[in-house]
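Why this split exists: single-chain examples teach little about how molecules sit against one another. For that reason, every record in the complexes split bundles all components of an assembly together and asks for one structure covering all of them. Below is a record exactly as it appears in the raw files.
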Amino acid sequence: MSSNLTTTGSNTTVSSGGLPSRRNTELALLVFAVLIPVFAYANVGLAMDDRLPSGMLGYGFGLALLAGVGHLVVRRWAPYADPLLLPLATLLNGIGLVIIWRLDQSERLQTRAKLLFGAFSPDAPNQLMYSAIGLALFVAILVVLKDHRVLQRYTYISMAVGLVLLVLPVFFPARNGAKIWVSLGPLNLQPGEFVKILIAVFFAGYLMVKRDALALASRRFMGLYLPRGRDLGPILVVWALSLMILVFETDLGTSLLFFGLFVIMLYVATERTSWIVFGLLLSAGGAAAVATFEPHVQDRVQAWLHPFAKETMAQSDQIAQSLWAFGSGGVLGSGWGQGNSDLIGFAANSDFILATVGEELGLTGTMAILILYGLIVERGVRISLAARDPFGKLLAVGLSGAFGLQVFVVAGGVMGLIPLTGMTMPFLASGGSSVLANWALIGILIRISDTARRPAPAPAPSPDAEMTQVVRPS
Amino acid sequence: MSELTLTVMRLGFLAVLWLFVIVSIQVIRSDLFGTRVTQRTARRAQDQRPQQRPQQQRQQPAGGRRGRGGGRGAPTKLVVTEGSLTGTTVALQGQTITLGRAHDSTIVLDDDYASSRHARIYPDRDGQWIVEDLGSTNGTYLDRTRLTTPTPIPPGAPIRIGKTVIELRK
């Protein structure tokens, strides 16, 4: 019975004997992933100006070049990596570029920018530049990081750096009601995007060491495993930290991501449902408590509960416009360049970019985009199953969990399912930090999957093989 | 641009987008549908269900992992009764147990008369535990007979490997 799944205690390992490297599959998918945005680009131009857009070749070549470089680097430095991650990320990044370019063409947004800032600057060239930097980061990670287990050495350093990055925005002025920005001259960074990777590294390293204590020392009570009081320490600390982020930076998104990631990884590391129950109770309690005294959070909740109310509209009609965009898109959408999602105005091409997908590609297109995100998360979880070391398993789950949480938080906010938070749709949305951090995240996942799927080195001929003594009948 | 062209392009784009999604899922279809192991455990669980369900529930309120290897009379642990590892027990949870001096064996035997990959013990389809000799130098003995083929293990029968004796117990 040579099964390809061995279960030993709490570790499930999917064996990877003799897997093909699948680089050609990846290349074919990449070509596909570059052609789709080019098609969309042509479509926007034809719909808005009746002609093929002049920059089409430039953007097409730019995206193809990025994809090509990414592919060659993976072929050279991570030959056994998962074949889907790079094409999925490329496609999402490409579609994002098209949407940002399409919103740059909108006269409404151009007039608005001129009124507010005196001049209009298109975001698409910036986004292409950031995508290139993001890909450079991706390449650097694959070339420099030969083995993801190296990250384990930086468990506590990454925690410290992560906390500093989280605290840093407090010292900079708030932008649009949330203190999540660090402004260095012309550069505006959102450190929260990078924190998710650092924190995932820290949690993975920490839980790998502590999971046995957290999983085994517990009492059963009403079908739940109750952890001991002192083991509750870490979760309470993380909870308090995430609440402090919420209070001092008024950033619901990072706070939710931070705490949610910890609960997910705690659950994966210990297999105890009780942690999820605790996590949900704590976060619900904490959020409710903060909402009673923090006006910014109250505003967000009011805007979520009553998007069309007079008071909400007076402050900002973004959510209302976003809901209208989804509604008027219907099932098949209005077609590229023919929607009115630019009415959202501020942040139409960053936080609210999904509304443009919803209006111009309709329910059908939105579902396809969400499935693309889902596939990235699925690949991450799969990589985690295939990884051979506990640190790699936890890190892969953590990174894909953070990615999935972020997609949920943003999509939920834009669609009115949960209160809006200041986060960006990974890869789609315009914003340097987000693109950079997410390419780095994909790079680490590809590194783990390469290590996991790489055929195990042939077992060294055992030195004691000959030493077996033969029983001689006496 | 005419309305018709734009409509065709709009639907065409959605079709192409979904085509990409479907092709991607095709690439990973073995992940989604190809796990043989799941089917096997499912079938075994079905076989057991009619007669053993109430029994199992009473014995193991935690449910799940244990007792996968057969019904009421099935052994639940492997005990080393002689040799340097005397007293070692390994829970039987439906996994294959390899014995030998190689470091990747489930039970690493510190025994000069054992081969690096000596024998393995595994459950067959019905949950019956089978012992198989893996071409060892000195052979594997079930009770007093040297094994030549994979043989079902009767409860309580000693399996001798070099100086080591193991038994399956409930």
